[in-house]
């Protein structure tokens, strides 16, 4: 594997794990504000980010390479409302999208077609990630953060459950 691409994938593993840590901090904030359902949504979000990190981790090893794991930054929560939390989440997902695009650019540059194939899943996933945050924010902005809407949203987001990553469900169906 190209060393520049491997380095950036290592960095992406770190960013995905940071994302999980950030979403746990957001979950903690929601829980402290009395929104157990929203807290649950962020816990599931954190679990997904760990799955994303592991997808990159497994890819590096499947390609016969090793990696360097670095320290994960501490999130600095500075939220004033649930809307603020979701706005920060969307901003963060846009940052992750930019990182995925950077990885895709490097994979094209070094003509690593296996990486391009793997990264396409992440390009599609980031569309979904940003859309989820945007949809929630649209409702929050439309209602001005009305407490009745927040309670309804809390109940709805409390129904979210973790699903197995695509690769695990695909393997289970073919086994």
From TrEMBL:
GO CC annotation: cytosol
Q: Which CDD domains match?
A: Nonheme_Ferritin
Listed under GO biological process in this entry are: intracellular iron ion homeostasis; iron ion transport
Output the Gene Ontology terms for molecular function. ferric iron binding; ferrous iron binding; ferroxidase activity; identical protein binding
> Coiled-coil segments, which residues?
none
- UniProt KW keywords: Iron, Iron storage, Metal-binding, Oxidoreductase
Q: Name one Pfam family in it.
A: Ferritin
Instruction: List, for all copies, the residue spans of the domain called Ferritin-like diiron.
Output: 1-144
Q: What is its EC number?
A: 1.16.3.2
Under the heading InterPro entries, the entry gives: Ferritin, Ferritin-like, Ferritin-like_diiron, Ferritin-like_SF, Ferritin_DPS_dom, Ferritin_prok
PANTHER family from the UniProt entry: BACTERIAL NON-HEME FERRITIN, FERRITIN
- Protein's name according to its UniProt entry: Ferritin
Q: From what organism does this protein derive?
A: Methanococcus maripaludis (Methanococcus deltae)
């Amino acid at each position: 594997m190209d060393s520049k691409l491997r380095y950036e994938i290592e960095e992406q593993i770190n960013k995905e794990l940071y994302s999980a840590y950030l979403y746990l901090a957001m979950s903690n904030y929601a829980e402290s504000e009395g929104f157990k359902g929203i807290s649950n949504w962020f816990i599931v979000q954190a679990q997904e980010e760990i799955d994303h990190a592991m997808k990159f981790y497994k890819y590096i090893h499947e390609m016969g390479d090793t990696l360097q794991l670095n320290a994960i930054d501490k999130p600095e929560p500075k939220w004033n409302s649930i809307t603020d939390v979701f706005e920060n989440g969307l901003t963060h997902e846009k940052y992750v999208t930019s990182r995925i695009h950077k990885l895709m650019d490097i994979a094209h540059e070094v003509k690593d077609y296996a990486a391009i194939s793997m990264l396409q899943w992440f390009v599609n996933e980031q569309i979904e990630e940003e859309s989820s945050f945007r949809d929630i924010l649209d409702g929050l902005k439309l209602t001005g953060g009305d407490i009745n809407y927040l309670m309804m949203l809390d109940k709805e987001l409390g129904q979210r459950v973790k699903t197995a990553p695509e690769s695990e469900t695909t393997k289970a169906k073919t086994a």
